[in-house]
């Protein structure tokens, strides 16, 4: 998994993941529907000390060894469905949360298959879906000088895929992967993201999840 593609990676969350992947020595391809937009966004980012970051079209990002989906939830299924063949037989990591803003809160949506991870699993039957990167503050992720010390909950039905993604995450500075279990837990993980974001909005903070009491 030396190369990592991020579909829809030009937003704050995608940029944050890209920055920390590159800092861990990965070659990262930040994808967008518009390759020029992706290139412009990457040009405005920091120069990674070890890996690399390139801005490309989503089609090129989908050709990488590991693919992360960071699109807005409304366009996720349309985006991945168009790339179904390129994503076949690959591990596809979803960090997508379906939620809407109501006043000062974000509220999770009820989906037909229980979670965005479940929706992707139905749309990409030949891919292995893993959920991760849900509860991270984007600004601190992109700022490698921040004191981020966050846990990343990982869910998926295939243990080897979960463990491979967890290994990638734990190598990223400021992050520790915590495997929770199967994809059946994805709905709860995604919904809790709305709680985390609502707390940060209300308290004007950049808090994140840290699970104490686990063996290091």
Please name the defining characteristics of this protein.
alpha/beta, Rossmann fold, eight-stranded mixed beta sheet, two-stranded antiparallel ribbon
* Proportion in helices: 25-40%
Number of E strands: 10
Radius of gyration based on Cα positions: 16 Å
CATH architectural arrangement: 3-Layer(aba) Sandwich
Largest sheet: 8 strands, mixed
Please give the domain count. 1
Q: Report strand %.
A: 15-25%
Protein topology:
Layout (H helix, E strand, L loop, with lengths): L2 E5 L4 H12 L3 E6 L2 H9 L8 E6 H4 L4 E4 L3 H10 L1 H4 L3 E4 L4 E4 L2 E4 L7 H8 L4 E4 L6 H5 L7 E7 L2 H12 L4 E7 L4 H18 L13
Parallel strand pairs: 1-2, 1-4, 2-3, 4-5, 5-8, 9-10
Antiparallel strand pairs: 6-7, 8-9
Structure in words:
The chain is α/β, with parallel strands linked by helices. It has a single domain, classed as Rossmann fold (3-Layer(aba) Sandwich). The protein has helices at residues 12-23, 35-43, 58-61, 73-82, 84-87, 116-123, 138-142, 159-170, 186-203; strands spanning 3-7, 27-32, 52-57, 66-69, 91-94, 99-102, 105-108, 128-131, 150-156, 175-181. An eight-stranded mixed β-sheet has the order 3-2-1-4-5-8-9-10, with helices on both faces. A two-stranded antiparallel ribbon has the order 6-7.
């Amino acid at each position: 998994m030396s190369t990592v593609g991020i579909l829809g990676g030009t937003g704050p969350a995608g940029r944050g993941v890209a920055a920390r992947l590159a800092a861990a020595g990965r070659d990262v391809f930040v994808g967008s529907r518009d390759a020029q937009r992706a290139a412009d966004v990457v040009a405005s980012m920091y120069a990674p000390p070890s890996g690399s970051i390139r801005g490309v079209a989503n089609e090129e990002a989908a050709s990488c060894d590991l693919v992360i989906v960071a699109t807005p939830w409304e366009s996720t299924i349309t985006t991945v469905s168009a790339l179904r063949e390129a994503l076949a037989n690959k591990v596809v990591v979803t960090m997508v949360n379906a939620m809407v803003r109501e006043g000062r809160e974000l509220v999770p949506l009820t989906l037909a298959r229980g979670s965005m991870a479940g929706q992707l699993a139905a749309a990409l039957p030949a891919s292995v879906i893993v959920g991760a990167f849900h509860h991270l503050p984007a600004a601190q992720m992109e700022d490698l000088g921040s004191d981020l010390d966050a846990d990343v909950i990982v869910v998926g039905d295939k243990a080897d895929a979960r463990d491979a993604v967890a290994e990638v995450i734990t190598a990223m500075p400021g992050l520790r992967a915590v495997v929770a279990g199967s994809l059946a837990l994805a709905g709860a993980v995604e919904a809790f993201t709305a709680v985390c974001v609502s707390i940060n909005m209300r308290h004007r903070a950049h808090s994140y999840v840290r699970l104490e009491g686990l063996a290091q």
